[in-house]
Design a protein that fits this description.
The termini are far apart. The protein has about 675 residues and is mostly helical. Helix 22 crosses helix 24. Among the domains are: about 325 residues, no CATH class; about 80 residues, no CATH class. The longest helix has about 40 residues. The protein contains 30 helices and no strands. The C terminus is likely disordered. Pfam families: DctM. It comes from Salinirubellus salinus. Keywords: Membrane, Transmembrane, Transmembrane helix. InterPro entries: DctM (IPR010656), TRAP_DctM-Dct_fused (IPR011853). This is TRAP transporter fused permease subunit.
């Protein structure tokens, strides 16, 4: 006979399942019918999503269990941090707090829904009631706390700082000063005025982002991640570099979807890092390779860690334009990572022997996953549908494909239909659970942006940045690089992108850089903060899995990912990489690709065959910089030609090696 504790746990699990399935079903319905405006939809999604998140927190604190595999992707550790101290104080009561927060999330969303017409049309003219202000303040508090629990104190501290700055304006010195805001103003502009929390960020998140995150959750439940790992393992057994390059590719694919370099490192790294270590790869290099590959996945179209959808909405350009602009820079980054990893594996002798022919039956086992991907590409690129519509058709195709596949493989029977339906409902639940932590952080970012724009701080920072740099392009870019890395520290992809775009990108645009190029520039450096010490969240997670030293792993990650810090400057100086034209794009892409290989040779001290002495590393570095940034195409061609000749023809093995595997 079940104990009361078991009964309560089952009841809570059932409630989570029902809400998760209902939220995904509602998302698909809204994508199909769109019965009301996006702000109203965002409110419904906010209430259900935050409530679902808090119910999971309740289950964790009360029962100490998490039965949804997708929920394990969270990599926040509470011990020793500010959040950990808060948790220790709340302690035994935290389960009740989270349960109350779930109820409160539904309550405030219901209040906004019942008063939506008044809040949208009458209240801005006739004024808001005290109850309105209280509800607005509660919404700000709820989304801030949900963000703290999901992603740690980093983003929540920015929310607190933004609100404190908004309220302390009259007492601040110099350019930081402003007229100030009361708590009622914070509640109004932060939430209840249908701005801030309900701004464009949550709107994009609860439409374009949500449909893809839910699709990704469904795909994992249907076995897509297992399929990728199986193919990778089989392919790794047939390559000289073993599973290392497979780890890079799988991390790239999953990183584009997850929206968090740290979460992706935790998810794919739990499989790839042990496999690399078994192959003989040193633990710090294994962790570094995974963390760099996972960070770069955020830059890869078509999803770009869900930042592509937000970027298209901010710039008011077609989503396909974002894919086109981001494609070559992303390929450059992964090409550089792939070359760096290959050089490292060859340099240290971490190669494997081929074990026979590739088992093609593994590929056939997951061929059905190609069907929804084809639908996704066709609807986005050919039909030019919005991501919301494309996501709807892709998700429905995934479900339909699974029914056809299971009926064909397992045989047509009632049991097959029942099992597939149960699997589909689990996919609905897992998709909603994957999305739930992101709802709070997107809403919290809306609060930050509202406070910064209402006080004018964003504009002031841009003006000061240009002024300090004297309007010189390279100085502005270097300052923007540093600021983007700082603002991106510890942030998930959407939060990092939004913050740097609001604070840093306008300064670059002021000195003549096109908008879309400026957005990609700051976005790339915000993503590279995941491998940049002293924070380097992706490196920290990878080092923890690999049992490697954090600082040593961070150093190796910088060596492998070094070209990533040069590539954003390359697409500033070679604009045809972003704005495609023939033959300029092909020519400059080829030149930059060669320059990147030369740069990798310089940073790794290896050219694929020989250890490089300091003179040759310096020569490769010089040729790469000329190929990447020279103002004249002829000069770039010359440098790329010399670099290519050096990589292909020199007999560097006659020279003494500066670094050998035993000395590294």
């Amino acid at each position: 006979m079940d104990t009361p504790t078991v009964t309560r746990e089952r009841a809570l699990t059932s409630l989570i399942t029902v809400i998760g399935i209902a939220l995904t079903a509602y998302m698909l319905f809204y994508a199909f019918d769109r019965p009301f405006v996006r702000v109203r939809h965002s409110n419904v999604f906010l209430g259900a999503g935050v409530a679902l998140f808090y119910l999971y927190e309740t289950k964790k604190h009360v029962f100490g269990t998490e039965d949804i595999e997708a929920y394990r992707d969270r990599d926040i550790e509470y011990d020793g941090s500010i959040t950990g101290r808060i948790q220790s104080v709340v302690g035994p009561y935290d389960g009740y707090v989270t349960l109350l927060s779930a109820v409160l999330a539904v309550g405030v969303a219901t209040y906004v829904e019942l008063n939506f017409q008044r809040l949208q049309f009458d209240a801005p003219v006739l004024g808001y009631s005290e109850v309105d202000f209280v509800v607005g303040a509660l919404i700000v508090l709820l989304v801030s706390d949900a963000t703290r629990r999901a992603y740690g104190f980093a983003i929540t501290s920015v929310v607190i700082a933004a609100v404190a700055y908004a309220m302390a304006g009259p007492w601040l010195p110099g350019f930081l000063g402003h007229t100030g805001m009361s708590w009622q103003d914070v509640a109004r502009f932060g939430a209840i005025g249908l701005s801030g929390t309900y701004g464009f960020i949550l709107g994009v998140g609860t439409t374009w982002v949500a449909i893809f995150i839910m699709f990704a959750g469904m795909a994992k439940t249907f076995g897509a991640l297992d399929y990728i790992l199986d193919v990778g393992t089989e392919l790794g057994n047939k390559l000289r570099s073993g599973v290392v390059q497979v780890s890079v590719i799988s991390s790239m694919a999953m990183g584009s979807i997850t929206g968090s370099a740290a979460a992706n490192t935790a998810t794919t790294g739990s499989f790839t890092i042990p496999m690399m270590k078994r192959q003989g790869v040193r633990e710090d290099f294994a962790a570094a390779i995974e963390s760099v590959a996972s960070s770069g996945g955020q830059m890869m179209p078509p999803v770009m860690g869900v930042a592509a959808f937000i970027m298209a909405d901010i710039l008011q350009v077609p989503y396909v334009r974002i894919i086109q602009a981001g494609l070559l820079p992303a390929l450059l980054f992964y090409f550089s990572v792939g070359i760096a990893v290959q050089f490292v594996v060859l340099k240290f002798g971490w190669t494997t022997e081929k074990t026979g022919e590739f088992d093609r039956s593994i590929l056939r086992g997951g061929a059905h996953f190609a069907v929804p991907l084809v639908v996704l590409v066709y609807t986005l690129v050919i039909l030019r549908l919005t991501p919301l519509s494309a996501g709807l058709y892709t998700a429905l195709t995934m479900v339909g494909t699974m029914y056809v596949r299971n009926l064909a493989v397992d045989g047509p029977s009632v049991r097959t239909l029942v099992d597939t339906t149960a699997q589909t409902l689990r996919g609905f639940r897992d998709g909603a659970v994957d999305m739930a932590p992101l709802v709070g952080v997107l809403a919290a970012m809306g609060v930050i942006i509202s406070m910064l724009t209402q006080t004018g701080l964003a504009q002031k920072i841009s003006i000061r940045m240009v002024g300090l740099a004297g309007g010189v392009l390279i100085a502005v870019l270097l300052m923007a690089m540093v600021l983007s890395i700082l603002f991106g520290l510890g942030m998930p992809t959407p939060a990092a992108y939004i913050l740097v775009v609001i604070l840093v990108a306008p300064g670059i645009i002021q000195v003549g850089v096109p908008e879309i190029t400026a957005h990609l520039f700051v976005f790339y450096f915000a993503m590279l903060s995941a491998i940049t010490p002293p924070v380097a969240v992706a490196v920290a997670v990878g080092a923890r899995i690999s049992d490697a030293d954090f600082l040593q792993t961070g150093m190796q990650a910088l060596r492998i990912g070094a070209p990533g810090f040069f590539i954003p400057f390359a697409f500033i100086s070679n604009r045809s990489l972003i704005f495609w034209s023939f033959p300029e794009t092909l020519l400059h892409a080829g030149i930059v690709f060669v320059g990147v290989v030369a740069l990798v040779a310089a940073t790794t001290g290896y050219d694929g065959r020989h250890d490089l002495g300091l003179p040759h590393r310096s020569a490769y570095l010089g040729l790469s910089l000329v190929a990447l940034y020279a103002p004249m195409t002829a000069v770039q061609v010359g440098a790329a030609t010399l670099a290519l000749a050096g990589l292909g023809l020199t007999q560097l093995d006659r020279l003494p090696a500066v670094v050998t595997p035993s000395q590294e």
